[in-house]
Amino acid sequence: MIHPTRTNLLLLKDKSRSVANSIAILKARKQALIKEFLAATLPFLRSREDIRQSYGKALRELALTLGHEGKDLVESITVATEREFGIDVIEKSIWGLRYKDIAFHETPVRDADKRGYDERGTTPHLEEGTVLFEKLLESMLHIAEYESKLKRLGEEILRTTRRIKVLEEMVLPGIKVQIKTITQYIGERERESFYRLKRVKNLLTEAKARL
Asked: Is the pTM of this model over 0.85?
């Protein structure tokens, strides 16, 4: 325990107010982070559902394409349409929280005339399957973006919650106990001083009366 003086009592009261303000700020930050987390959760879940549905449809169209076009043609078209797909990993920030985001230079879904082959010589199954796989890639990129953001938000929400709990359940109560103890000590000391002074005054009054 620190030395029970009025100066230390004032310092403890200032510290108590500072901790209380820190708790309020952390709670506001936590609420803001939770809001961002919930806002990102719905698109993330939708993207996962889009992937599940698109993947099943794409596999069906691929199977039909292989049956109509043959494996050799499909493989040759795959080689002909191969392209460089640039992806940048960039850093973003929410309420001071940094996380990784993904930016791609062009949309994964291309127009039919940009794929590098004549779609008039193929079946609709090939075209539909190609579009579905390109959409699948786009959805997977969005999922990668949301996963990174949600992970960092979740970690920061837990970290902030722990800090609030420590301040509310350990730090602030400890300061309040010290304030109460010092206040009681100073009060008792002042009462003792008051009684001593009163006793001295009475003795002086009695001595003066005897003269």
From this structure: no
